[in-house]
Amino acid sequence: MTPEGSTPSDTLLKTINDRFGSFDSFKEQFTTAALANFGSGRTRVIKKHDELEIVNTPNQNNPLMDHQKAILGIDLREHAYYLKNQNRRADYINNRWNIINWDKVEELYNK
Asked: Fewest beta carbons within 10 Å, which of 18, 33, 40, 62?
């Protein structure tokens, strides 16, 4: 996260567009997955065989348990957003798009 927010580089944006059709489609698919993630858990973008995939993990589970690499994620456990957003999970998810550090996401993607 970064307080200034940022945008994906052209290279990362091309990767996202190639996989999800467009950046807006990617955001929509990620948001839909996060909203559908029941109870406590996280929604992440993983790099799997040089492809990006959106996955939900329950509770404390982590993609590393399945030998996968997360490059972007959101904590959906209630304590992560309740004080500011109460039960408005959608607001919390939508606000996260404004503080993503895309340089760090790309760094993780390239590792």
From this structure: 18
